[in-house]
Each structure stands twice: as structure tokens, then as C-alpha cells.
């Protein structure tokens, strides 16, 4: 029960890493609020977590790139939980395309989801964390923030920007006793990852090529990242802020 009594907002919590985070945090005693634009996915998460005697669960469906919608949704779930002590931002889209074929609108869309949405979320959530004191923010970035990938200029730039956003935010919020950290996952078995090889003419060969980048040739599970977020959101990491934790099977140095 590492998060007993804490109230944590999980953005992008309807599937993948976000959903695993909501499940593990709730099992560890946290009241959780889940944001996502996937209303059906949200309903499934809430139904699976809502049990008699368990910590509260709140949810709100919204487009995380819409500042007004984010503000309204966070106000709604914060009221439902009686405040917020932490936030995990697990949102992102990919764009696999040569730079010379990438349009300005595609570039902007990736930055809107991967970098501006986290800004909106933090901008709205931070006042609640300031009130609670001892707050935590965890951003789910990517190993591509540390070591680039071919044909992903927009994705790499946005995720690298998210890492530095987390570091700068840690500086700004230190006096409020709010810790901010980032996690850089490697290949994780999520719909976003599967898109990167399933459309290839030879998916099996492409998957093997991807795995060759990793010292540990294993496809990670969403729970691997959720457990890292648990560490950074609990008292176990009281002396950790402004850090970038690679959970990537060794890719960033291999």
C-alpha cells in the first residue's frame, strides 16, 4: 500500500501504460482519476477498479490537446477525489515518416499531443498539488528522447522536449515540495508500439530488427513502466526529482 491516502490523476489511462498505471496505483491504495478521450476505455477501467471498500475512482473524457476541456475535466475529478496529490502523464502519438515528407500540420499534431497536452495538464493540476504539498508529477516520455530513431523527427523532438520540460518544471516547483520526473520506456507491448511493425510488409522481420536495438531482447509490458511510475510517485523516491529514468531494456546505451 505504497500510495495509501494519495489521490493521483492519470492522463491517458484508458489503455496501455496509462491503464496499467491506474490499476497498479489503485491496488497500492491510491484514489485514482483517469482522463482519456476514449470514453469506452474509460468505462472499462472504472468498472474494473470500482469495488466495495476500495479507494475511489473518478474519470472524465476529454481531448487532452483542448486546454479548456482539460481544465474542466481536472476540476471535475479533483472535486470528486477531494484534491490531487500526484499526476502521471501517459499520452502520445507516433509519426513514422521521412522528414522530407512530413508536413507542417503533421509536425504540429505530434507536438500538440506529446508536448502541449502535458503542458495543459500540468498547468491545471499544479495548483491542486501546491495545496496538497508533497506532490509528484511523472511524465512518460520515450527512449527516443535519448537516442533517435529513423524517420521520426517529430516524435523524437517532442519526447526530448518532454524530458527537458520535466527537468525545468522540477526546478520551478521545488519550493512547493513537488517532485517532477520523467520515464523513458523502450519497446512496450501497447497498441502504439504494435503499429510500428504490424503494417510492415514483413512484420516478423521488422520486429526482430527492432529488438536488435535492445540489450535485453524482450518486449516490455505496460506494468514495467507502471511500476517505475509507482516508485517515482511514492515515498520510496523522496530524494528524487528532475531525473530521467530509462526503462528500456538497455537501448539508450547499447
UniProtKB/TrEMBL annotation:
InterPro entries: KR_dom (IPR057326), NAD(P)-bd_dom_sf (IPR036291), Sc_DH/Rdtase_CS (IPR020904), SDR_DHRS6-like (IPR051122), SDR_fam (IPR002347). Pfam families: adh_short_C2 (PF13561). It is an enzyme of class 1 (oxidoreductase). Keywords: Oxidoreductase. Residues 6-190 form the Ketoreductase domain. GO terms for molecular function: oxidoreductase activity. Its EC number is 1.1.1.-. Belongs to the short-chain dehydrogenases/reductases (SDR) family. This is SDR family NAD(P)-dependent oxidoreductase. It comes from Fodinicurvata halophila. The lineage of its organism: Bacteria, Pseudomonadati, Pseudomonadota, Alphaproteobacteria, Rhodospirillales.
Amino acid at each position: 500500500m505504497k500510495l495509501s491516502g494519495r489521490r493521483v490523476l492519470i492522463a491517458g489511462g484508458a489503455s496501455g501504460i496509462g491503464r496499467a498505471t491506474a490499476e497498479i496505483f489503485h491496488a497500492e491504495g491510491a484514489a485514482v482519476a483517469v482522463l482519456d478521450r476514449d470514453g469506452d476505455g474509460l468505462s472499462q477501467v472504472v468498472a474494473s477498479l470500482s469495488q466495495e471498500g476500495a479507494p475511489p475512482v473518478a474519470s472524465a473524457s476529454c481531448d487532452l490537446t483542448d486546454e479548456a476541456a482539460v481544465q474542466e475535466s481536472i476540476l471535475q475529478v479533483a472535486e470528486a477525489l477531494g484534491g490531487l496529490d500526484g499526476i502521471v502523464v501517459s499520452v502520445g502519438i507516433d509519426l513514422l515518416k521521412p522528414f522530407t515528407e512530413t508536413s507542417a500540420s503533421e509536425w504540429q499534431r505530434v507536438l500538440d499531443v506529446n508536448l502541449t497536452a502535458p503542458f495543459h495538464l500540468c498547468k491545471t493540476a499544479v495548483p491542486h498539488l501546491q495545496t496538497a504539498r508533497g506532490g509528484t508529477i511523472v511524465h512518460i516520455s520515450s527512449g527516443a528522447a535519448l537516442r533517435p530513431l529513423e524517420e521520426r523527427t517529430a516524435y523524437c523532438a517532442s519526447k526530448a522536449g518532454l524530458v527537458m520540460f520535466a527537468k525545468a518544471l522540477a526546478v520551478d516547483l521545488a519550493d512547493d515540495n513537488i517532485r517532477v520526473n520523467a520515464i523513458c520506456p523502450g519497446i512496450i507491448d501497447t497498441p502504439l508500439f504494435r503499429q510500428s511493425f504490424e503494417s510492415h510488409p514483413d512484420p516478423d522481420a521488422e520486429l526482430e530488427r527492432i529488438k536488435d536495438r535492445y540489450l535485453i531482447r524482450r518486449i516490455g509490458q505496460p506494468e514495467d513502466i507502471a511500476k517505475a511510475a509507482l516508485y517515482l510517485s511514492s515515498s520510496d523516491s523522496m530524494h528524487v526529482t528532475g531525473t530521467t529514468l530509462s526503462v528500456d531494456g538497455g537501448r539508450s546505451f547499447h
